[in-house]
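Researcher: We plan to redesign the surface later, but first we want a full-length starting point. C-alpha cells attached.
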C-alpha cells in the first residue's frame, strides 16, 4: 500500500477533498491557498500568495517537497509560537495545455501540497495499519460478497486456507469441493444462508460448513462461519461479509468424544456376542470408519477365557459381518486404509477388530489411533462380559435341565405333554419349573412355579423348591396346606439371607425372594381337581366340547412375601378335559397385551382334539414366535377317569366282624379281576387296616376301596385323625405286628388326611 493511497485514499486527513491545500509554482512560490489552509495556519491568501513556501517552515533543514513525498513539517502559524506540526503530502500538477511550456531546467514542477494536523494524520495512519493488519495478518478468513453474492475481496488468511488463487467473482459454495452446511436447522448451501442474511439483515454466527479446500483435497475440513450484512450510509445493502475459522481439529475431537459416549451407551446392551458386534458396527460406521469386522477366538465363543500365551494363535470366529446373504461386505484386513486393533482384557487377547476406509491412503493421526484404541477397549469389555455370561448361562442351563423332569411319568389318570423354553435374550436362565408327581390313590400332583430372577441363583432356588414340593406332595398334603408349608420355607430362606454377616463372610445368592406357584391334585376316581395358587397365573380349562375357560381360583400372595392365607378350590373335570398350566413368560412381555395373549391361547387350545405334543407346538408358535424374554413353561394335561371295572368300594359298619366281611369282599373282587395271586396278601392287608380303623374310628362308618391301576391300591377310610405308626413288637406283646406285616408285604403304604378324617393306603405290584 503506497503512501499516496495510504494518506489520500478512503477520505483520510490528507485526501485533497478534505485537506488544506497550497499550490506551488516551479520556483516554490505559493500561487494557491485554500480556505482550509487559512484555517490551518491562520494566513489569508493575500498574506502568503507570492511568498516562497520555505518561509513558512520553522526548520531550515526541512526535507525537500518533491512530488510523491510525504513529510511532517513544523510550519509557522500567523499567531507566532514555535510552529505547528503539520503533515504534508506532495502531489505533482500536470498542465492540460500542450502549448504551455514545462518547468525550466533546475526548477520543480508545479506542486499541490495537501496539509493536515500531524496528530490527526498519525491517528489515521494507525487506523490504516490496523486495517492493513486485518487484511494481511488476521488468522480469521475474511471475504466480502457483493449483492450478487459473488466475491469482491478476500484477505490473506482466507487465501492461505483455500490456496492462492483469484477468487473474485465466484460464489461461496464454489471455493471447496463437496461443500455442505452441517449445522442443523440451516439451509444446505452457503448461498442460501447469505441470501437470507442479505434479505433480512439478521446475522448468522457459528455456522458449521464441511468440504475439501483446494489446498487439502484429500481430507474434509470443517469451518465455523459467521455472516453479516454490509450497509451504506443510508442503510442500503452493499453486500455480505463472511468470517471463517478452521475448527477441523476441535470438531473432530468433539465428534470422537461423542462417538465414545455413544459407544458406551449403545454397545453391550445385551450379553449376546453377535448382538454386541452388531451394535458396535452400527455405532462406528460410517461415523468413524466405512466398514468394520469383529473376530473373537473360538474359546471366547464357548465362554472360556483364552490363555495369554496362546490366545493370539488360536482360531477365530467372525462375529461381524455375519456370513449370510445380504450381510455387509467384510473389510480386507491387509488392504490400504485399514487399522487392526486387538481386543485385549487384563493382558489376554480375546480377538481383534478391524476398521477400514475405502479411500484412505495416508497415515493415521494420533487422534484416530487413540479413538480406535478406546473403541476396541470398550468392545473388549463387552465381549468379556458376554463371555462370562455365556459360561454362567451354560452352567445355569445345565443345572436347570438337571433339576427339571427329563421324562414325565406314564400315568393312567392323565395324558401329559410339556414345553420348556429358556430365555435366549436378557439376563439368561430363569427359575421357571414344572413337575408331575404320582400320589396315592392313583392321583397325580401337578405343579408349575416361577422364581423371580435369573442365572445360577434362580436355577438353584428353583431346584430347592422343586425338591421341597415333591417331598410335601408325597406327604399327601392338601394344596393350600402344601403352599403354606412352602411359603414358610421360602420365608425362612429369605430371613437367613437378610441376617447380619461377619466381616469377610460371603453373602449367599439373593435369588428366591418372590416365588409364584400353582399346585393341583387330580383324582381320576372322582374326576375332581383341587387347586391352590400363590400369585401365579390362572390355568386354562378346555371342556370336552371345546369351550375354554380361565376359572377364577383364590389367589394367595407370592411365596416369601407373607400375608393372606392360601385357599383351595375344587374343579370338576369331565373325562377328556384339558388342563393347561403355564408360567407368565408364555403370555407376558414387553409390548404384549395380556388379554390379547390369553385370547390367542384360548383359540389355540380350542383345537383340543389334536395330539398334545402338536398342541404344545401350536401354543408356542402362536405366543412366542420370536426370542423369549423370559423363561416359559407349559404343561398340558388331558384328564381321564377310572372306569367301574377299575374301582370297587364297600361301606363297613363299626363292628368287629367288619374285617371278615372286608376280607371276603376284597378276595371276591380280586378273583373277578383275575388277580388270584394277590388274594392272600390283600386279605392280610385289608384285615389289618380295617381292624385298626374300626378300633380307632369311634363309632363312625369305615369304607374300603380297591383300585386296579398300574398297581393294586387298597384304601381304608375312617373319621380318625391319628396316624398309625410302624413299630417292632416285643416277643411277649399280643399285638403291634399288623403294620409291620403290611410294610413287608406291600411296595409302599402311608396315610393321607381328608376333611372327614384320614385314609390309610397300601400298594402292591400287579402280577406280570
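Model: Full-length starting sequence:
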Amino acid at each position: 500500500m503506497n503512501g499516496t493511497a495510504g494518506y489520500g485514499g478512503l477520505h483520510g486527513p490528507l485526501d485533497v477533498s478534505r485537506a488544506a491545500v497550497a499550490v506551488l509554482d516551479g520556483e516554490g512560490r505559493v500561487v494557491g491557498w485554500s480556505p482550509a489552509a487559512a484555517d490551518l495556519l491562520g494566513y489569508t491568501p493575500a498574506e502568503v500568495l507570492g511568498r516562497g513556501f520555505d518561509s513558512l517552515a520553522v526548520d531550515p533543514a526541512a526535507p525537500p517537497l518533491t512530488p510523491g513525498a510525504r513529510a511532517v513539517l513544523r510550519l509557522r502559524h500567523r499567531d507566532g509560537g514555535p510552529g505547528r506540526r503539520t503533515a504534508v503530502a506532495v502531489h505533482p500538477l500536470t498542465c492540460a495545455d500542450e502549448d504551455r511550456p514545462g518547468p525550466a531546467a533546475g526548477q520543480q514542477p508545479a506542486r499541490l501540497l495537501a496539509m493536515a494536523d500531524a496528530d490527526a494524520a498519525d491517528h489515521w495512519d494507525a487506523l490504516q495499519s490496523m486495517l492493513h493488519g486485518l487484511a494481511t495478518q488476521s488468522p480469521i478468513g475474511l471475504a466480502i460478497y457483493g449483492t450478487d453474492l459473488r466475491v469482491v475481496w478476500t484477505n490473506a488468511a482466507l487465501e492461505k486456507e483455500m490456496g492462492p488463487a483469484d477468487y473474485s467473482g465466484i460464489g461461496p459454495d464454489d471455493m471447496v469441493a463437496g461443500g455442505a452446511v452441517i449445522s442443523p436447522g440451516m439451509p444446505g448451501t452457503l448461498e442460501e444462508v447469505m441470501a437470507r442474511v442479505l434479505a433480512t439483515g439478521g446475522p448468522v454466527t457459528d455456522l458449521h460448513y464441511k468440504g475439501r479446500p483446494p489446498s487439502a483435497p484429500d481430507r474434509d475440513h470443517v469451518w465455523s462461519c459467521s455472516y453479516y450484512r454490509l450497509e451504506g450510509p443510508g442503510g442500503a445493502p452493499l453486500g455480505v461479509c463472511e468470517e471463517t475459522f478452521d475448527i477441523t481439529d476441535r470438531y473432530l475431537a468433539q465428534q470422537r468424544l461423542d462417538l465414545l459416549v455413544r459407544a458406551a451407551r449403545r454397545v453391550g446392551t445385551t450379553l449376546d456376542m453377535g448382538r454386541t458386534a452388531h451394535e458396535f458396527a452400527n455405532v462406528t460406521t460410517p461415523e468413524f470408519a466405512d466398514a468394520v469386522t469383529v473376530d473373537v477366538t473360538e474359546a471366547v465363543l464357548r465362554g472360556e477365557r483364552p490363555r495369554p500365551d496362546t490366545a493370539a494363535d488360536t482360531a477365530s470366529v467372525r462375529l461381524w459381518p455375519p456370513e449370510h446373504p445380504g450381510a455387509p461386505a467384510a473389510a480386507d484386513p491387509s488392504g490400504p486404509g485399514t487399522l487392526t486393533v486387538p481386543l485385549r482384557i487384563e493382558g489376554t487377547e480375546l480377538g481383534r477388530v478391524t476398521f477400514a476406509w475405502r479411500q484412505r491412503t495416508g497415515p493415521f493421526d494420533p487422534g484416530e489411533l487413540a479413538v480406535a484404541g478406546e473403541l476396541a477397549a470398550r468392545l473388549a469389555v463387552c465381549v468379556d462380559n458376554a463371555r462370562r455370561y455365556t459360561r454362567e448361562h451354560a452352567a445355569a442351563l445345565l443345572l436347570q435341565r438337571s433339576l427339571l423332569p427329563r421324562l414325565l411319568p406314564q400315568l393312567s389318570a392323565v395324558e401329559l405333554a410339556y414345553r420348556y423354553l429358556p430365555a435366549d435374550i436378557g439376563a439368561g436362565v430363569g427359575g421357571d419349573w414344572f413337575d408331575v408327581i404320582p400320589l396315592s390313590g392313583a392321583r397325580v400332583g401337578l405343579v408349575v412355579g416361577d422364581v423371580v430372577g435369573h442365572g445360577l441363583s434362580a436355577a438353584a432356588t428353583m431346584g430347592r423348591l422343586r425338591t421341597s414340593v415333591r417331598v410335601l406332595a408325597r406327604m399327601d398334603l392338601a394344596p393350600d396346606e402344601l403352599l403354606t408349608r412352602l411359603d414358610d420355607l421360602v420365608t425362612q430362606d429369605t430371613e437367613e439371607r437378610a441376617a447380619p454377616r461377619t466381616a469377610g463372610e460371603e453373602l449367599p445368592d439373593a435369588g428366591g425372594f418372590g416365588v409364584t406357584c400353582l399346585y393341583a391334585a387330580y383324582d381320576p376316581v372322582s374326576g375332581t381337581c383341587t387347586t391352590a395358587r400363590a400369585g401365579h397365573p390362572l390355568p386354562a380349562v378346555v371342556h370336552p366340547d371345546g369351550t375354554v375357560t380361565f376359572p377364577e381360583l383364590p389367589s394367595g400372595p407370592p411365596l416369601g412375601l407373607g400375608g393372606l392365607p392360601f385357599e383351595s378350590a375344587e374343579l370338576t373335570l369331565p373325562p377328556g378335559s384339558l388342563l393347561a398350566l403355564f408360567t407368565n413368560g408364555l403370555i407376558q412381555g414387553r409390548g404384549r397385551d395380556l388379554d390379547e395373549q390369553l385370547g390367542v391361547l384360548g383359540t389355540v387350545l380350542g383345537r383340543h382334539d389334536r395330539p398334545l405334543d402338536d398342541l404344545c407346538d401350536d401354543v408356542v408358535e402362536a405366543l412366542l414366535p420370536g426370542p423369549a424374554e423370559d423363561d416359559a413353561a407349559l404343561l398340558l394335561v388331558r384328564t381321564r377317569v377310572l372306569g367301574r371295572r377299575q374301582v370297587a368300594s364297600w361301606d363297613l359298619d363299626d363292628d368287629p366282624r367288619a374285617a371278615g366281611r372286608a376280607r371276603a369282599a376284597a378276595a371276591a373282587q380280586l378273583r373277578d379281576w383275575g388277580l388270584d395271586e394277590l388274594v392272600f396278601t390283600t386279605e392280610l392287608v385289608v384285615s389289618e387296616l380295617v381292624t385298626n380303623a374300626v378300633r380307632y374310628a369311634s363309632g363312625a362308618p369305615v369304607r374300603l376301596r380297591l383300585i386296579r391301576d398300574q398297581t393294586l391300591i387298597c384304601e381304608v377310610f375312617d373319621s380318625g385323625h391319628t396316624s398309625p405308626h410302624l413299630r417292632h413288637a416285643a416277643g411277649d406283646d399280643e399285638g403291634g405286628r399288623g403294620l409291620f406285616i403290611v410294610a413287608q408285604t406291600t411296595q409302599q403304604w402311608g396315610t393321607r388326611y381328608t376333611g372327614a378324617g384320614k385314609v390309610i393306603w397300601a400298594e402292591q405290584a400287579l402280577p406280570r
